[in-house]
Amino acid sequence: MDEPSEPSHASAFLPITFLIGGGWDHPAVYDPFLRAAAGTPGSTPHVACVILDEGEGDGERQFARYDEALRSAGDCTPVPVLMPIGARFDVGAAADVDGLLVCGGLTPAYQDAFADCLDRLPRLLAERRIPYAGFSAGAALAARAAVVGGWLLDGVAVCPEDTSEDLDEIAVRDGLGLVPFAVDAHAAQWGTLPRLIAAVTRYRLPHGVAVDENTLVEVAADGRAHVSGLGRAHFVRPADAGDGGVVVRSYGAGESFLTGLDDLTDLTDLDDLNGLTG
Description:
By secondary structure, the protein is α/β, with parallel strands linked by helices. The protein has a single domain (13-264), classed as Class I glutamine amidotransferase (GATase) domain (Rossmann fold, 3-Layer(aba) Sandwich), CATH 3.40.50. Helix content is 23%, strand content 27%.
């Protein structure tokens, strides 16, 4: 049984975080991230693209897709950071770039790759004002309590098996704590919203957001979230009645919602995460 460690003191000074729900049809979802990375108009940001490389040219092929998408969205210089499965992320790779993009792939493997720097990386991003973008797995990792996969709750299917990330039971593990809610991706396309609902109810998480493909949720340092792109972001919270139910509200492009950064601190009460599993 896993339990989250104490969050970094950098939580109060979080960088802007960009959550992309997957998809390749709308490169414009990268535009706000690139503008934040550039800092000043006319600058060309260098963006580190962290990709888990499964070998035989997989990493290079994946990077080519992100390189094309980023350059289609705006002037930038993508920098590949290819990591073999099982390797650990070197925080130094983020020290000399203007933006950090953690890409998609097997979410549990990404969580494992970043497990040794869950405090140090957010602190570095905050100190150097480096924006973070997460695509699919990278979006899930941005959460304090990261939903890394699974398709069963107590042996009962809650989402398609193809979305399992090679896990059976729904698993929630330590994440980076850049946003005060759990995150799932490919919500409408893969049917992952029920998994997020199950995670919120089972593990008593304060909030969750499931993001559609080709959709961006931009989370400011004060916790305000803004939606853009072609799809919607589905906000999940426990119902006020305390009966195990949830309230779900969907937000489309141009809409915003508030999330409480205090919830990052609330999660230090490990009794609230009884049953957290890995």
